[in-house]
Each structure stands twice: as C-alpha cells, then as structure tokens.
Design brief:
Number of domains: 2
Protein name: HTH OST-type domain-containing protein
Keywords: Membrane, Transmembrane, Transmembrane helix
Structural class: mainly alpha
Strand content: 5-15%
Order of helices and strands: HHEHHEE
Oligomer: single chain
Helix content: 40-55%
CATH topology of the largest domain: Arc Repressor Mutant, subunit A
Shape: elongated
Largest sheet: 3 strands, antiparallel
C-alpha cells in the first residue's frame, strides 16, 4: 500500500511539472509573438511592408520632448507663485472659528495630490501661516489670528 501511495505522489508531481512546463511554454510563445521574435530563438521577424494600395499617411507631428532655447523651463518664481496661490486658496477654505478638518480640505482640492497638500500644510504650519491641531486621525486647520496693531 505504501508503494502505491509513493507512485501516486510521483505521478501527481509529474503531471504538475508537465502542466507548469506547458503553461510557461505557451506564455513564452505569446511573449515572443508580441515581440516579433521567432519561437525558437533570437531571430527577429522584419515588420510587414505597408500595402501599396493603402492611402498615404501624412507624417505625424513630432512632439519636442526636450525644451528648445525658445521654451524656457519653469522657474522657481513660477513654482513659488503657484504655491502662494494654493496657500491663499487653502486659507480661504479654512477661515472661520471652527476651522476645517484636513480630510475635508482634500475634497475641496480634488486636482491636487494629497501628499503635496500634506507637505504644503505642514510647511504652512511651520511658517505660522496656519495652525494645525491633532484631532483623532487627522488635523483641524485654523487660519492664523490676525494681529491688530
């Protein structure tokens, strides 16, 4: 009886190995077909020649990935002005005696990345531009109290 169980175990492992090999072999063939390579090795098939009867395609306009000298890269002053505008919008949203939860603020700026907003809010808190108080798993944001001179 013990020999039969060993035979059954070996047969099962052989079936599993065969199944795994055929699956991997099929996947390899699919990958090689997508890459345009011959199934047996490294030869690359030449791309199919365009049909003569097909309409002549107009050349596509190439996008310039590297900015030319006529296109200056974004400067720090532009980035700074965008950050200042964002800070002003944040302060408009949180003004009021109750302030606003940081999680609620994310909904007011759906086009902004949460991590970016978190960094901006932490920097504003460090600058004293706003005040953050821990409330459960988020922060309550308050506008700074204006100094009357």
């Amino acid at each position: 009886m013990g020999g039969f169980l060993i035979f059954l175990g070996l047969a099962g492992m052989a079936y599993f190995a065969y199944f795994a090999f055929t699956t991997l072999s099929g996947m390899e063939k699919d990958i090689r077909r997508e890459l345009g390579q011959a199934p047996t090795g490294g030869e690359v098939k030449p791309p199919a020649a365009p049909k003569a009867a097909a309409a002549v395609e107009q050349p596509r306009e190439k996008k310039n990935l590297v900015p030319s000298p006529a296109q200056p890269p974004a400067t720090e002053t532009v980035r700074a002005s965008v950050e200042i505008a964002l800070e002003e919008q944040i302060l408009k949203q949180i003004k009021g005696p109750k302030g606003m939860l940081q999680t609620e603020l994310y909904g007011k700026f759906p086009d902004q990345d949460r991590r970016h907003l978190q960094k901006v809010l932490a920097a504003m808190d460090a600058d004293g531009t706003l005040k953050r108080e821990k409330e459960k798993s988020t922060y309550r944001l308050f506008a700074p109290k204006s100094k009357k001179s």
